[in-house]
């Protein structure tokens, strides 16, 4: 079942048929393929390549194929080269000889290009919506649990922050990712239909008609580029890779925080699994899988970049490989976004353990130095003094706020009773510009 048997005298090898077919992968372009064909037929009528009656016959045929695929009556299967061949041959079976006119002034090269652009564009909204759901989950969870916790550098306890501010950092990353996807959607929104195989067509067609019908901003400026460009897929997969990288960092924190060593959060049973041998185990598998699948999405990005790097203009069959990588990366990122949002929505925050971790980490040491600065000590001297206080606290096994003023005065006689309020963990969060962390 071929669209191009004319110049061939013998059949392809069976393994070649299978190797060459993209139908098991590109079947999911059926809606975009039919929309592209309906727009093309409308343009053909507009350009007198088809009579209005022929146009109507083809459009009705295409619509009936769509309806039958959606209802399950027509299964996308069989020995076809790709979704384009499947639909065109099905159309000719339904409407007869007129079906053979569908491909006038078109090549599968501009056809597959217009299908993928529509598909990618449609999916950008799905990804942006999923990102927004995650952003909302992070902000809601942070707002409902804006408790103080240790902030880290080098994974060492550093200064007091709030849980809302910590989750808010991730919300910022996903907000940037959303803008990136939006930007990619704007760049890709040009119509390649009408480029033909690579060099346009001698038929007097009007690319504005399909451009308007398919919702593109303009026809592409260059035919050769129009059928060769897969930049938009690489760009979207780079965006997906960033989304995964951000989710992977968040996953890593969820895994750490849910460990017995931290106990800052409890991940819901719904997103955890147990051990077949150790009865006490509850493992953060959802977060681990998201972290793990990040490698898979990076892999897809690199696979496509590598496929494209040596290709001469214009279309080469290598480009058929774009779909498997793009679809897999897209499905993975959408699954991960959904699971991550749900995991955030349902996790429990253990305020008690977060507070206990603050107490043990000298997390107000910087504020003791700031206090000394406020009393007139140069910051470098203040830093040195607090260093000595820490050594003393470690020897005595005490926190700074547990020392008496008498003990503290041995390190600096600028220290007075007002130090306790200044270095209190809750009040630290309200001082200077730190108030930002409370505003969630
Ligand atoms: N299945 C092909 C692809 O995905 C469609 C384009 C075929 N074009 C061609 N000249 N063989 O790239």
Automatic annotation (TrEMBL):
<dbReference type="InterPro" id="IPR022761">
    <property type="entry name" value="Fumarate_lyase_N"/>
</dbReference>
<keyword id="KW-0028">Amino-acid biosynthesis</keyword>
<keyword id="KW-0055">Arginine biosynthesis</keyword>
<dbReference type="Pfam" id="PF14698">
    <property type="entry name" value="ASL_C2"/>
</dbReference>
<dbReference type="Pfam" id="PF00206">
    <property type="entry name" value="Lyase_1"/>
</dbReference>
<dbReference type="GO" id="GO:0016829">
    <property type="term" value="F:lyase activity"/>
</dbReference>
<protein>
    <recommendedName>
        <fullName>Argininosuccinate lyase</fullName>
        <ecNumber>4.3.2.1</ecNumber>
    </recommendedName>
</protein>
<feature type="domain" description="Fumarate lyase N-terminal">
    <location>
        <begin position="6"/>
        <end position="299"/>
    </location>
</feature>
<keyword id="KW-0963">Cytoplasm</keyword>
<dbReference type="InterPro" id="IPR008948">
    <property type="entry name" value="L-Aspartase-like"/>
</dbReference>
<dbReference type="InterPro" id="IPR009049">
    <property type="entry name" value="Argininosuccinate_lyase"/>
</dbReference>
<dbReference type="InterPro" id="IPR020557">
    <property type="entry name" value="Fumarate_lyase_CS"/>
</dbReference>
<dbReference type="InterPro" id="IPR000362">
    <property type="entry name" value="Fumarate_lyase_fam"/>
</dbReference>
<dbReference type="InterPro" id="IPR029419">
    <property type="entry name" value="Arg_succ_lyase_C"/>
</dbReference>
<comment type="pathway">
    <text>Amino-acid biosynthesis; L-arginine biosynthesis; L-arginine from L-ornithine and carbamoyl phosphate: step 3/3.</text>
</comment>
<keyword id="KW-0456">Lyase</keyword>
<feature type="domain" description="Argininosuccinate lyase C-terminal">
    <location>
        <begin position="362"/>
        <end position="429"/>
    </location>
</feature>
<comment type="similarity">
    <text>Belongs to the lyase 1 family. Argininosuccinate lyase subfamily.</text>
</comment>
<dbReference type="InterPro" id="IPR024083">
    <property type="entry name" value="Fumarase/histidase_N"/>
</dbReference>
């Amino acid at each position: 079942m071929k669209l191009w048997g004319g110049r061939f005298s013998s059949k392809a090898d069976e393994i070649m048929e299978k190797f060459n077919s993209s139908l098991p992968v590109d079947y999911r372009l059926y809606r975009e393929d039919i929309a592209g064909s309906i727009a093309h037929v409308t343009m053909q009528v507009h350009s007198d390549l088809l009579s209005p009656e022929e146009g109507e016959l083809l459009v009705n045929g295409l619509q009936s194929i769509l309806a039958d695929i959606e209802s399950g009556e027509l299964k996308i299967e069989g020995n076809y080269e790709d979704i384009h061949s499947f639909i065109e041959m099905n159309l000719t079976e339904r409407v007869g000889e007129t079906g053979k006119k569908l491909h006038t002034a078109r090549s599968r090269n501009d056809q597959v290009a217009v299908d993928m652009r529509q598909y990618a564009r449609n999916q950008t909204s799905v990804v942006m919506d999923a990102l927004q759901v995650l952003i909302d989950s992070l902000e809601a969870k942070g707002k409902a649990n804006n408790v103080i916790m240790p902030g880290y550098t080098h994974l060492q306890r550093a200064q007091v922050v709030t849980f809302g501010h910590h989750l808010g950092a991730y919300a910022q990353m996903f907000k940037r990712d959303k803008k990136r996807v939006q930007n990619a959607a704007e760049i890709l929104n040009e119509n390649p239909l009408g480029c033909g195989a690579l060099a346009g067509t001698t038929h007097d067609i009007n690319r504005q008609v399909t451009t308007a019908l398919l919702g593109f901003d303009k026809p592409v400026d260059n035919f050769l580029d129009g059928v060769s460009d897969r930049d938009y897929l690489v760009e979207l997969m780079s965006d997906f890779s960033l989304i995964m990288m951000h989710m992977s960092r968040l996953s890593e924190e969820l895994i750490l925080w849910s460990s017995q060593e931290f106990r800052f959060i409890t991940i819901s049973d719904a997103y955890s699994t147990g051990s077949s041998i150790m009865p006490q185990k509850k493992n953060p598998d959802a977060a681990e899988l998201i972290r793990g699948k990040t490698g898979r999405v990076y892999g897809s990005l690199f696979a496509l970049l590598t496929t494209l790097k040596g290709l001469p203009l214009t279309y080469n069959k290598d480009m058929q490989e774009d779909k498997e990588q793009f679809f897999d990366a897209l499905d993975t990122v959408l699954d991960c976004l959904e699971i991550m949002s749900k995991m955030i929505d349902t996790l429990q925050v253990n305020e008690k353990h977060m507070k206990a971790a603050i107490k043990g980490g000298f997390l107000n040491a910087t504020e003791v130095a700031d206090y000394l600065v406020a009393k007139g000590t140069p910051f470098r001297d203040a830093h040195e003094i607090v260093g000595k206080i820490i050594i003393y606290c470690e020897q005595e096994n005490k926190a700074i706020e547990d020392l008496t003023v008498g003990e503290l005065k041995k390190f600096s006689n600028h220290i007075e009773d007002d130090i306790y309020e200044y270095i209190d963990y809750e009040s630290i969060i309200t001082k200077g510009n730190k108030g930002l962390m409370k505003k969630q």
